[in-house]
């Protein structure tokens, strides 16, 4: 721009103002750059403080031990109290046991009652007694106890009748039939012959007539063979048949059976026979055979037969009694 009075060029005020604006604007980016690290530092500090409150930076690796209360380092009870999580307040108290009279579950009770009915129907009186005892040990309700009592009222007379039949069979010398009857009363390898022992209080035998005698078998003599032509009852093809001894040793007996004009000569185990109307001495020999065959119930039934026939025992009878006590 030229001054008309002097003819000299004059400075352009617009340009001066423009250059001053540029000069003033130039340092602005440097100021922002100086403030940005400060803001980042402040933000980082805030995040660190918040993280400490939530335990982001205080917990060590999972393998490290805490401070003894199960918390990570830097965490506090107050922090957990406000984190919205349910705390473990210590060991839980055990569930209370069912109170007597509360009753067992309907399904379990029905299952045991069905099992008891099944044993009764099959004349498995010993197993029925075992199931009954399992029921009575449970905390039954009054209604459940009444139903169990009704079945118990059915079971007890059956057991007494069975024991009476066993005693009658032994008295008549039908010990094999008595043994078959007694099998109904066995439960879990046990037969408490309470009724029989009550009928013969002087006979001192083991209370469990199923208890093993194997360890004592070697202490008793071997049985004498049955006499030839002795009439016997023999269990053959699951039936009791009457025949006569054709031959015998201490383990086996060959019996002559007659049926419809035909003769057969089956050989059976010694303990599968019994002399008809057995004497006391024959009953002792049959008991000795049962001991060596490992049949404790049958041996004790033969000992009962000996006792019913004769109070005074022979030396062999005493040996048999000692094993069966």
Distance between the termini: 146 Å
| Outline type | elongated
Encode the helix/strand succession as letters.
HHHHHHHHEEEEEEHHH
How many separate helices?
11
Query: Could you give a short account of the major beta sheet?
Result: 6 strands, antiparallel
Instruction: Detail the poorly predicted runs.
Output: 1-31, 57-101
General description of the model:
The chain has 325 residues and is of the alpha+beta class. The chain has 11 helices and 6 strands. It has helices at 13-25, 28-54, 77-81, 106-121, 125-136, 142-171, 175-182, 194-199, 280-292, 296-309, 315-324, and strands at residues 231-236, 239-248, 252-259, 262-264, 267-269, 273-275. Strands 1, 2, 3, 4, 5 and 6 form a 6-stranded antiparallel β-sheet that branches. Helix 10 (296-309) packs across helix 11. The model is unreliable at 1-31 and 57-101 (pLDDT under 50).
What attributes characterize this protein structure?
325 residues, alpha+beta, 6-stranded antiparallel beta sheet, 11 helices, 6 strands, 47% helix, elongated
Short overview:
By secondary structure, the chain is an alpha+beta fold. The chain has 11 helices and 6 strands.
């Amino acid at each position: 721009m030229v001054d008309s009075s002097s003819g000299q060029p004059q400075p352009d005020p617009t340009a001066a103002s423009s250059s001053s604006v540029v000069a003033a604007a130039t340092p602005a980016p440097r100021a922002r750059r100086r403030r940005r690290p400060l803001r980042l530092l402040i933000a980082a500090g805030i995040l660190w403080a918040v993280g400490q409150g939530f335990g982001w930076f205080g917990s060590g690796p999972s393998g490290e031990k805490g401070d003894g209360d199960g918390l990570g380092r830097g965490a506090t009870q107050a922090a957990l109290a406000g984190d919205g999580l349910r705390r473990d307040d210590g060991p839980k108290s055990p569930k209370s046991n069912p109170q007597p009279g509360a009753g067992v579950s309907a399904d379990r009770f029905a299952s045991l009652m069905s099992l008891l009915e099944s044993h009764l129907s099959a004349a498995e009186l010993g197993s029925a007694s075992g199931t009954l005892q399992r029921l009575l040990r449970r905390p039954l309700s009054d209604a459940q106890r009444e139903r169990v009592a009704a079945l118990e009222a059915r079971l007890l007379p059956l057991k007494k009748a069975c024991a009476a039949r066993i005693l009658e069979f032994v008295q008549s010398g039908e010990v094999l039939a008595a043994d078959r009857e007694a099998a109904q009363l066995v439960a879990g390898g046990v037969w408490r012959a309470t009724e029989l022992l009550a009928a013969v209080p002087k006979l001192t035998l083991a209370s469990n007539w199923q208890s093993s005698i194997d360890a004592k078998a070697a202490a008793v003599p071997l049985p004498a063979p049955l006499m030839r032509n002795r009439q016997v009852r023999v269990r053959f093809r699951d039936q009791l048949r009457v025949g006569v001894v054709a031959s015998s040793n201490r383990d086996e007996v060959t019996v002559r059976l007659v049926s419809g004009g035909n003769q057969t000569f089956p050989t059976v185990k010694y303990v599968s026979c019994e002399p008809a109307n057995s004497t006391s001495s024959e009953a002792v020999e049959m008991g000795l055979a049962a001991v060596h065959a490992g049949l404790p119930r049958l041996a004790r039934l033969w000992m009962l037969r000996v006792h019913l026939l004769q109070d005074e025992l022979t030396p062999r009878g005493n040996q048999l009694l000692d094993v069966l006590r």
